[in-house]
Specification:
Radius of gyration: 32 Å
Shape: extended
Number of strands: 11
Largest sheet: 5 strands, antiparallel
Helix content: 40-55%
Number of helices: 12
Order of helices and strands: EEHHHEEEHEEEHEEHHHHHHHE
Mean pLDDT: 88
Length: 434
């Protein structure tokens, strides 16, 4: 086997491979021999059929497997010799073997560009000072109490108001027909928290227990059900019950319910958790400022496939975020192509940062162990409820292990740069909404 390496661009390579006839025939012979012992052919005992008969009956599978197997062997050998690590999947341009003929094919891939790294040790960067804001800790405490509120049915016959939990049965109608999928039985909604359309809340607030009512409602243009988006429709509703939320007081007894000895220890834990979270946020913001200042000193081309993969990730995250709010990408009124165009600059920034940090990791000799990859996958499996071994197999079979390894390596490089930085504390900004 002979090969020739060609430069397509600063971030892309192509390899032309020539396989002599002898190697082609040898690969075919090896695959035929494997088939000979594992397949059943009528009229012959297993493993005793002539090679010509085996080749004739299983020609398509044999030639396909022999071609693929040999190409994979060659790619691994060539990449080891030229000492290059593809960033993208490898694209192979090949036909199928022809017996007694030389075999010529090519494969191409993208790789990280060479980066002339600036001095990244001892760089000055500002980080906001982390202090416990009593107002924020109080708000956290209030959220805990709110989550532990007891809900009791109100016996008094009256109209519901903000803060009440209303139990309703409703449906959206088109003429006399209720629209499938836009109805609910005994649906509970907390009023005054923008959980429903304002007109629907107004309808419910105008009813008393046991009463029914109806109202024409205009649905927003980004409503998840495109059939109703931007249109008016009739909603009919029946109010079954009103429940009142009783928020408890912060007591030692309540503190014990959430795992603490008393109120003092619970409040101490809340303050410490808040401080840790704010410290991480301030550190992340400072790290971004630091790496942005370093990136401003260098320029290098971006592999298109890396940018596209980051775009895919951003659009996927957007879709998941919208779904959690009951909306879809289509509800934004933009095509996926438009969203990708709007997100391209951010994707390029992500790719640029990752390549820079991987270059630092390479220079500093940083590495990622299999145990570190397993630890990350274990956290993902715990958070998602997936089986660890099934998740790991999925990552391996779908080629996601290498990108995961690169992300871990980039994080290590960021931590290294920051550990060597001259960090200057500055006063913290007041949190929005406090």
């Amino acid at each position: 086997m002979e090969y020739k390496l060609e430069d397509i661009s600063p971030v892309a390579k192509k390899v032309l491979v020539t396989v002599p006839t002898e190697e082609v025939n040898g690969a075919l012979a090896a695959t035929i021999a494997m088939y000979k012992v594992k397949v059943d052919i009528h009229g012959f005992r297993k493993g005793k059929a002539p090679a010509s008969v085996v080749e004739q009956q299983f020609r398509k599978q044999i030639y396909g497997e022999a071609t693929t197997d040999l190409i994979n062997v060659h790619i691994n050998e060539i990449l080891a010799e030229i000492k290059l690590s593809p960033l993208s999947k490898i694209d192979v341009d090949a036909e199928e073997f022809v017996r007694d003929q030389d075999f010529i094919y090519s494969f191409s891939f993208e790789l990280a560009p060479p980066i002339d790294l600036p001095e990244y040790v001892g760089v000055k960067v500002e980080e906001e000072k982390t202090e416990a804001d009593p107002k924020v800790v109080t708000k956290v405490e209030e959220r805990i109490l709110d989550n532990m509120a007891e809900v009791k049915i109100i016996e008094e016959v009256r109209q519901p108001r903000d803060g009440d939990v209303a139990t309703v049965t409703f449906g959206v109608y088109e003429g006399d027909t209720i629209l499938d999928g836009i109805q609910a039985e005994n649906f509970e909604m907390t009023l005054g928290q923008q959980q429903a359309l304002p007109e629907f809340e107004a309808l419910v607030k105008g009813l008393k227990q046991g009463e029914s009512g109806e109202k024409d409602v205009e649905f927003p243009a980004d409503f998840i059900n495109t059939r109703l988006a931007g249109k008016k429709a009739l909603i009919k509703a029946t109010l079954h019950a009103i429940k009142e939320r009783k928020v408890p007081e912060m007591t030692d007894e309540l503190a014990k319910k959430v795992g603490y000895d008393d109120v003092t220890k619970l409040r101490t834990a809340l303050a410490e958790s808040y401080l840790a979270n704010r410290k991480n946020l301030h550190k992340s913001a400072a790290q971004k400022k630091l790496v942005d200042s370093l990136l401003a000193q260098v320029s290098f081309p971006l592999p298109p496939s890396l940018v596209e993969s980051r775009l895919d990730m951003l659009i996927s995250e957007l879709a998941e975020s919208l779904e959690r709010r009951g909306k879809s990408i289509e509800s934004l009124g933009k095509t996926r192509e438009q969203l990708r165009a709007e997100s391209r600059e951010r994707a390029e920034d992500m790719a640029r940062t990752e390549l820079f940090l991987l270059a630092v990791a390479s220079k500093e000799g940083l590495a990622v162990s299999p145990q570190e990859i397993d630890a990350v996958l274990k956290r993902v499996s715990d958070q998602s409820g997936q089986n660890f071994f099934e998740l790991k197999r999925y990552y391996e079979e779908s080629g996601m292990v290498v990108p995961l390894k690169d992300r871990i390596l980039a994080d290590k490089a960021m931590d290294f740069i920051y550990s060597k930085a001259e960090v200057v504390e500055i006063p913290a900004k007041e949190e929005a909404g406090v």
